[in-house]
Amino acid sequence: MKKTFLGFMGFIALICVGCSGDSSSSSSNSVDYSSPQSWLALPGIVSTALSTPFGSGLSSLESTAPVDVFYIHPTNCIKTDVLNCGLEDSNTISMLVTMEQATVYNAMGKIYAPKYRQMALPLYELGDSPNFQYALTFAYNDVKSAFRHYLKNYNNGRPFIIGAHSQGTDHARRLIMEEVYNTPVQSRFVAAWTPGQPTPYTWFDSDLGGPQKILPCTSAAQTGCIAVWQSFGEGVSAEIIAQWNATDVYWSGQLQRWVFPVNGEVLYNVNPLTWTTDPGVVDPALNLGTLPLGVAATDFTGLYAGVVNAQNLNGYLSVSPLPLPSILFAPISGRDPHIYHSYDYALFWLNIRNNVRLRVQAYLQQQNVQYPLITSTNRFSGTVGSPFTYQITTINAATAYTSTILPDGLQLDTSSGVISGTPTISGVYKVVLGASNSSGATSSELAVTVNP
To answer: H or E segment at 313?
Structure first.
């Protein structure tokens, strides 16, 4: 019923149905993460992780990104004749998922996204068993191997983010517990965005407590924390929620096994429109940009503000309207229409992207960086024939400003950071801003919309 990503025009399930079993996919041979072929995304190599929504005016800034991102993709293989799927099952489908999910991080991070021999989806539905424990740990060991390779060969002491979804979140939680928490690299851990799996508060207390504790995120600029949410349409039945949560698991450090939830556990869930756990309904006006997903005419095209509201309810997110707009989202066959699991990133895409910038900048301030950090909005609009003024603002004073090509009629004052003028041609323009002082330089995206 869950933990797979079936959002792109309904064809992901069809592709996986045709996958043939491969007994070698559960081989004990380790994956060679020194090979670029073992990664969906690596800095400097063209991948879907470098995309931004078509026509959005936003930019991938990998070359100047101040942090790294370790991203773990969700389940996309539904084979029934293997426990673990092969690396080839991480290719086409996960590249599409990476385009929809990992791209939220590319304005602030260099993205490292490993392929791994994921546990096949049907094992989630069969409940606890020796095969389940083996297969999910087998998949996790690939992720752990990739993370260790990343730290040893690529990280070079840089701050890092962990991003994941669904089965990827299972692995991310265990990875944070075993490889980040209470280790030398914890000081470089900015935050984690790991939606798609309910997470009990007791897990944080029992496995991430103590002096070096890692907390759930409960405010927008908090660092060193883990953000979790799971999305359902407003009015979802208690039965659907119970069935969904019953197949969730998390790694217990105390028991050293994957643990299924206990009825009545209090689950942590954050609202991506406010980044708090407050239970009130949050107005769709705070939804900055939903990413279309699955409809051929709009898929990964533009961002739409105010599409949904969200309310935090008993460990999950209640989202309205139901159903989602048909021009933006394709329905997923074979599921209750209230299940928005595939859309955990897409519904709140720009809110997540902006929150990544906020938390990264909060972390860098804690590290006492002295170069400018651009804080002005990354989207701004004007109208043909009307005066336009945009001020680049920074934490830490800048002495010089730059920009890539601006819309006709606009100019940048390189001393004050003011973009002004009267635009003459309508359109959406992709602009990259720069700010510098004697301590260094930084860059930021700016999508300029000039209305007719």
So the answer is: strand 309-313
Secondary element (H or E) of residue 205: helix 201-207
User: Do residues 234 and 276 lie in contact, with contact meaning Cβ atoms separated by under 8 Å?
Assistant: no
Q: Cis link prior to 53 (omega < 30° from 0)?
A: no
What are the residues facing 107 on neighbouring strands?
A: none
Q: What Cα–Cα distance (Å) separates residue 212 from each residue in 8, 87, 162, 204, 208? A: 40, 35, 18, 12, 8
With a threshold of 0.90, does the pTM exceed it? Answer: yes
Paired strand residues for 401: 435
∠ Cα 60 64 65 (to 5°): 70
Q: Provide the phi-psi class of 311: left if phi over 0, else alpha when psi is between -120 and 50, else beta.
A: beta
Residue with tokens 């556990």: 265
Residue written as tokens 């980040």?
180
List pLDDT tens digits, range 300-340.
999 999 999 999 998 999 999 989 999 999 887 678 899 99
The pLDDT-based confidence of 3 (bands split at 50, 70, 90) is low
Collapsed DSSP state (helix, strand, coil) of residue 38: helix
Q: For the chain, how big is the Rg over CA atoms in Å?
A: 22
Instruction: Give the pair of three-digit tokens for residue 263.
Output: 């009825």
Half-sphere exposure of 291 (CA within 13 A, CB side): 28
Query: What residues pair up with 259 in beta bridges, in sequence order?
Result: 250
Give residue-wise pLDDT tens across range 242-289: 888 888 899 999 999 999 877 778 999 999 999 999 999 999 999 999
Helix, strand, coil percent values for the chain (each to nearest 5): 30, 25, 45
Angle in degrees, 0-180, between the axes of helices 130-150 and 167-175, rounded to the nearest 10:
60
**Dist. CA 169–CA 317, nearest whole Å:** 17
Are the C-beta atoms of 434 and 404 separated by less than 8 Å?
Answer: no
Residue 113 binned pLDDT confidence (cut-offs 50, 70, 90): very high
Sign of the torsion angle spanned by Cα atoms 296, 300, 305, 311: positive
Edge-to-edge strand order for the sheet containing 189-193?
A: 39-41, 109-114, 67-72, 160-164, 189-193, 225-227, 215-216
Q: Tokens 């069935």 correspond to what residue?
A: 243
In one-letter notation, the amino acid at residue 416 is S
